[in-house]
Amino acid sequence: MPASQDKPVEPKRKQPVARSAAAKPPGELPLLNRELGVLAFNERVLAQAADASMPLLERLRFLCIVSSNLDEFFEVRVAGLREQMRSDPSHRDVDGMAASEVMSEVRLRANALVARQYALLNDTIMPALAKAGVSIYPRPDWNGELEAWARRYFEEQILPVLTPIGLDPAHPFPRVLNKSLNIVVELSGTDAFGRMAELAIVQAPRVLPRVIALPADKFGRDKFILLSSVLMRFVGELFPGIEVRGAHAFRATRNSDLFVDEEEMTNLRQALQGELTQRHFGDAVRLEVAQECPDAVVRFLLKQFEIEEGDLFRVDGPVNLARLMQVADMCERADLKFLPFQPSHSALLGESGDVFEMIRQGDILLHHPFESFEPVIDYLRAAAHDPHVVAIKQTIYRTGSESELMELLITAAKSGKEVTAVVELMARFDEETNINWAGRLEAVGAHVVYGVVGHKTHAKMCLVVRREGGRLRRYVHLGTGNYHPRTARFYTDFGLITANEALCDDANEVFRQLTGLSKVLKLNHIWQSPFTLHDNVLAAIAREIKSAKEGRKARIIAKMNALQEPRVINALYAASAAGVKVDLIVRGACALVPGRAGLSENIRVVSAIGRFLEHSRIFWFENGGDHDVRLSSADWMDRNFFRRVEICFPILDAKFKKRIYTEGLAPYLRRDAGVWELDASGVYNRQSRGDASAQEGLLSTLVKTVEPPRLRLKGIRSALKLRRK
């Protein structure tokens, strides 16, 4: 197809200005700090919770997401900062900041963020929920009936599993699990052995629900109390005859990085299984305590966890807001949630019912969650049951503890097909799940490999080999997202199912590298890390610079989760200086500074936060009008370029290129798309949302929302009232 027919309609924008300034070497680049960028991202997420136009229970979800994100931030990023401060305190990262300087800023920003969280919860969201009929009763609001019910619940459901630990020389401070709920109890008196009672620790077992739904027949629908409230109210039952002077919830966050010695290790799975048991007891990096906890008790806790006062967070409410997500899950209130929608289904089953015939007729491009993930399952289901399929090869990064895809691989292996699963055991926080799947696959005869030690396998590929007419034919699914049906419902991702021989040959070669031993071979179309992806991205940017200098159109659009790699950022600065228009859609942390005169005035950076988690990676290069459009599993970060196995594959069909532009890029580049724009000072500013945000616009054009009957009836009644007026 001629290039002119492939040309997308672009939003109007002022012409780029070419500059003669030479690009600076990476060590002198103006870069924004990654840790502060992650916190800035969570500030944008919190703004969703503060948005009054959002449904109430969704606002609560966003509030909880911030807490969950902060947990991981402290477990990984802050833990890394602490280690850097210990091992090399004088070291400065590429952004020019020492770890101690970053830590100081992190503490200030994180404390301010948490304070805004609790203020929003207490002053706005909780009162609004109560007005709407959803209540989470704090202890001061309990009436006599609720008090009596909670006491019975405590005695029957909680008390039997609690083990109080009185602190004395024979009972030292217990090992407190990472992120677990604990109560520190102030006591006064002597026990049966004559020992002075001062402090005790009560740990809440993880089997206990953190949010307790009250019986609807007694208290009404959607009424809840928290486990922490019940524990603190009745903890005295654990110390009969001893005066309880106070009870205060606390929670410690620990370093959760796993350490595996690659030189000494002989079996990665066994090494990880041994290490996982210790993850919950790493060095403490944060302490959260109830706001009213006495200073003396706080100092005692800080000493036990060997952390500083700067690592302390006093909170005005539950010490773990992430648990409140259960309230949104348990409430069946369609009027307080996003309108449900039915993803469109790109049916793989034609009249013949032959999935592979449909793929041979033409490539299939899927855009989740607007299009169903079911075709991917159809593809693997057909492969598992088709007697002509002889082999299936798949990468597994995150897939969930319950997965039909994994069950289909097990079914295929049981039926005698050659099944090869490249399971990434080092997928953070999914290690245990992946170990379990690896064991089940091995038990039925599948070939299970764990990729390459030192390089996480993050590529998303599923290759099927089928015998057709006396020859073997291959089919492949390549994607930007994980093989995880649940997250496919709320992550934005693209996937391609194709029988293109060159792409299938490339995928097969990547699998051969992962499972066997071979030199790096040149691939037909796929750019692969850690070998060619970085060089090819730099070459593609250089190609746009050359076009701009020759007076031809030049354009770069890139969408990703994070942008951090200095040499790529340096190349983008050089592209801007040459007059190349650069649009970057970066959901999370972005180290590049846009809009700076003489350096990056032709670069725009936006971040989209909304109902769905923006997860797709799309790279668009003008390429002289013959657009080079690629989808990838990789962000533009050092780890993705050099310490992971990633793929970046081209979209060869012109109509698919246009679709990716109109669905995956253009909606986020509108000036009224409701995105956050990064300015030259490193601050994100919310842009006008117009009639709808980018995601809302895609929902309205790509799928149909399903309006609940209750809402439709409410709308009819409102219309009748207006008509009567």
- Mean pLDDT comes to 89
| CA-atom Rg in angstroms | 28 Å
CATH level-two architecture of the domain at 342-522: 2-Layer Sandwich
What is the overall silhouette?
globular
The major β-sheet equals:
10 strands, mixed
Q: Supply the CATH superfamily name of the domain at 342-522.
A: Endonuclease Chain A
Number of strands: 29
**Proportion in β-strands:** 15-25%
Task: Describe this structure as you would to a colleague.
This protein is an alpha/beta fold and 725 residues long. Among the domains are: 342-522, 2-Layer Sandwich (Endonuclease, Chain A), CATH 3.30.870; 528-705, Endonuclease Chain A (Endonuclease, Chain A, 2-Layer Sandwich), CATH 3.30.870. It contains 20 helices and 29 strands. Helix 16 links the parallel strand 20 and strand 21 (581-586).
Main attributes?
Endonuclease, Chain A; disordered N terminus; ten-stranded mixed sheet; disordered C terminus; 20 helices; 725 residues; alpha/beta; eight-stranded mixed sheet; globular
Ordered list of secondary-structure elements with their pairings:
Elements: H1 34-50, H2 56-87, H3 99-131, E1 135-136, H4 144-158, E2 164-166, E3 182-188, E4 199-203, E5 211-213, H5 216-219, E6 223-226, H6 227-234, E7 243-254, H7 268-279, E8 284-290, H8 295-305, E9 312-315, H9 325-330, E10 341-342, H10 355-361, E11 364-368, H11 374-385, E12 389-396, H12 404-414, E13 418-423, H13 431-443, E14 447-449, E15 456-457, E16 461-468, E17 471-479, E18 491-498, H14 501-515, E19 527-529, H15 533-549, E20 555-560, H16 566-577, E21 581-586, E22 603-607, E23 613-614, E24 617-621, E25 628-632, H17 638-642, E26 644-650, H18 654-669, E27 676-678, E28 684-686, H19 694-702, E29 704-705, H20 709-724
Parallel strand pairs: 1-6, 8-9, 12-13, 13-14, 15-26, 18-23, 20-21, 21-22
Antiparallel strand pairs: 2-4, 3-4, 3-7, 5-6, 7-8, 10-29, 11-18, 12-16, 16-17, 17-18, 19-26, 20-24, 22-27, 24-25, 25-26, 27-28
Helix pairs in contact: 1-2, 1-3, 2-3, 11-12, 15-16
